[in-house]
Amino acid sequence: MTAEQIAEYVMPPYSVGKPLNDRGVHELLNSGGALAGYVFETEPLAPLPGFSGAPINMLVVLDLEGRFIDVRLIEQNEPIFVSGLGEAPFRQFLQQYGGLSISDSIVVGTPYGAGGGGSLVYLDGVTKATASVRIAHESIMAAALAVAREKMKGINTTPPAHPDPEHDEPLTWADLLDHGIVTHKVVTNADIDAMFDGTLWEDDDPEARENPDAPYLDLWVVDVGPKSIARAVLSDSGFKELQGFLELSPDEEPILLIETGRHGLVSPEFVRNTAPDWLTAEQGGLPVALRDSDLLVELSDDLPPEMHDGVAMILRTDRRLGFDPASPWTLRVLAVREHGMFQPETGSVTIEVPHATPERFFVRSGKVEAAPPWLDALRNRRGDLIVLSLFLVGLTAVLAPRMNPLADHKGFTPARLAILAVVTGFIGWWGQGQLSIVTVLGAIRAAREGGSYAFLLYDPFSLLIWGFAILGFVLLGRGYFCGWLCPFGALQEFAHHLGRLLRLPQFDLPAKWDARLKGLKYIALAGLVATVFITPDNVDKAAEIEPFKTAITTFFVRDWYYVLYAGFWLVSGLFLFKGFCRYLCPLGAFMAIGGLLRGRKWIARRAECGSPCQLCRVQCRYRAIRPDGAITYSECFACLDCVTIHNSSSRCVPLILDRRRRNGRPMEAAE
Fold first, then answer.
1. What's residue 260's pLDDT?
2. Mind giving me the DSSP string for 154-215?
3. Counting beta carbons within 10 angstroms of the beta carbon of residue 552, is it exposed (0 to 12), middle (13 to 18) or buried (19 or more)?
4. Backbone angles phi and psi of 554, in degrees to 5
5. Phi and psi (nearest 5°) for 338?
6. How far is it, in rounded angstroms, from Cα 446 to Cα 444?
């Protein structure tokens, strides 16, 4: 934007000065015209794509000390905020940055593992939009740190180093100590008592008074990114596990901490794979983001026995955010005390542990890239992803056989409804895994505009479902997703069963109109794709033809007309079987096209199917069986009803006739 356009977002007494580079950074002037900070857009500095395929652009106002004065939304196309929750929750989220510093350890979400006295700063996320606000946060911090390193005095602009893969130096634990590669910090109980002296908490650690010379903190710090150092510290299996982790996360720098005192490194409430609540780091006046690597640490037998009995953990930090492992940095350890028994008051002091690893273990490159948050998104949803993976693998194994044995089970209908309940509850409402045509359109837009597909990685839960849906194309066609994995489709099926339970009249359209209306979903899909090319900014509004966002993503917490629209399709399901899925769903049209990859006809047919037997065709609620008995797989939802009939000796007419023929009964008796 021009300076005049940016000025509309900057509140008095500040004003916008001259541009400082060609990436949207301008001077921030105070009322006297003196330099007061910097104002800049995030998109040119950290263009992390959102779920629409386009970056979220925000305006950041930063003072000379690196403190946020304001963060304002300029433009975004996140589906959940365009017409789902609206922009108000997003703007409210951004208001939390005012007064915070880029030196703060800022985390989006609930304070997992944040014991009393923790130094992390937590921003309240937005329900149903966790991934989107995480993308926004990463953009803000990456852009602010880029400006800080370039413009603020004293910031090191040297490209960060990374471990030299060619450096091979035989080392022992004794060598690490002799060369100063390991930092050892001891703080006695007497030392910690002195730090709390004169405060409310000076008498709240009886153990420190009883054993003043005993170690409160006995901490060893070593950077195990370089292989030579890691081999000297870790066991063979521990070294292999660490290298496997670094192969998946090559930009992470692993820091090993071993504590043999009574501090313990983290609070009892700490949760693995999160930011440690009692540990922070700083380098060059800027924070270093630390996070637990969730690795089980196995130490080398060369280390003293007492170290094996201590607390050991490997933290990780991203070098792309500016951490330079070859330059000095400082680990900060909080010592926390509580005063009082009921609603105790918490106090803390900070123990600083400077550390430096020799430069010879590293090499430098000339480029620093912005850190994508996909890895954190993957790790933060690890539990959900494990459960989802087990569910999808199990479901695929059950559905994969050609004439599915599940259809022959006497409890088939309850089992199917139980699976659909899991899909609705766990995948839909809990996991927010309702696939949408918006993802397809975002991918098309990224391809058209030469953008990145990284936005897909910010929601690994949905991406895993997409992977299995594509696998389902080959196995079953459209039916794998539409019949078994779509939460809104499951809701419509529940509506159908409720309508039958209430003995409501059931309607079905004449075959001619049914065939005509099934073409509407392809027209809807074509219209949405055309919108990407003609008016891409309106894609998310056009995609509201899907009621998924209302019924699943926001759980009906939206404007009344969206709720009315979604409610219409669910209520209609009481009388008309899955009308939206069959006639209007653009995602279903895309799945039908993807179903052309189907490699087999997985529903067996007999010569008598269609002539003279029409039972499967009459019973098929999707009208996916032609008069000649052949399956129209583009309309088949893999409900297995026809398979149940085909395999049943008491329902399949050709099997009944054949049995009676073999028993010598006349054909008329069979009729």
1. 92
2. T---SPPEEE-TT------HHHHHHTT-SEEEEEEHHHHHHHHTTSTTTTS-HHHHH-TTSE
3. buried
4. -100, 0
5. -120, 145
6. 5
| H and E: helices and strands count for the chain | 28, 18
Q: Give, to the nearest 10 degrees, the angle between helix 460-475 and helix 586-594.
A: 50
Rounded CA separation 191/177 (Å): 24
Over the Cα atoms of the chain, what is R_g? 31
Q: 11 has which bridge partners?
A: none
Query: pTM of the full predicted structure?
Result: 0.52
Note whether 445 and 539 are within 8 A (CB): yes
Q: Which position has the token pair 């001077």?
A: 27
- Rounded Cα distance, 140 and 76, in Å: 14
Q: Which two tokens stand for residue 536?
A: 């891409």
* Beta sheet of 57-63, edge-to-edge order: 15-19, 25-29, 35-41, 57-63, 68-75
Answer left, alpha or beta for residue 502, where phi above 0 means left and psi between -120 and 50 means alpha. alpha
pLDDT at residue number 550: 87
Mean pLDDT of 290-307: 87
Q: Which residue has the tokens 């201590």?
A: 310
In this structure, what token pair is assigned to residue 422? 């899991």
Name the maximum alpha-carbon separation found in the chain: 108
Phi-psi region of 99 (alpha: psi -120 to 50; beta: other; left: phi over 0): left
In terms of Cβ atoms closer than 10 Å to its own Cβ (0-12, 13-18, 19+), residue 235 is middle
Which region among 115-119, 384-388, 549-553, 604-608 has the lowest average model confidence (pLDDT)? 115-119
**Helix spans in 53-129 (H):** 79, 88-94
